[in-house]
From TrEMBL:
It comes from Spirosoma sordidisoli. This is N-acetylmuramoyl-L-alanine amidase. InterPro entries: Amidase/PGRP_sf, Amidase_domain. One of its GO terms (molecular function) is N-acetylmuramoyl-L-alanine amidase activity. Pfam families: Amidase_2 (PF01510). GO terms for biological process: peptidoglycan catabolic process. Residues 1-124 form the N-acetylmuramoyl-L-alanine amidase domain.
Amino acid sequence: MRQIDHIVLHCTAGPQSQTIDAIKNWWKTGLGWKQVGYHILIKADGEAVRLAEDEVVTNGVKNHNARSIHISYIGGVNKNGVAVDNRTPAQIATQLRLLREYKEKYPAARIVGHRDFLVPGKPGYKSCPSFSVRDFLTKHAPELL
Ligand SMILES: [Zn+2]
């Protein structure tokens, strides 16, 4: 089994109406990626769509993919493209369910947000997933911290 150090939460930084096909097409033809960006995408209605098996390395955080699981919700920006936490209650419920499952599968892994790997103000910084994972877990699932 692949060693997993981090379970990383993301947003797609696009409209909540984005389709999975549009997102996958952007990775492939827009960015030229050979692999998908995340293992699981969470739609606005809370449905979790698996894009890759856990054993497969995906492309969520540059230089941190070999030992990571990446989970993203669709959304994370307002209509002007500004970062905003617009997760639906259904998306939050699915995040918590998946995080509990993954923490059981990989007890040593830390749950973090994409931005926790980055330094504010430095090139390449992004606010993904548009909320503080630490605050989120503290409030909803402190046992996962
Ligand atoms: Zn991200």
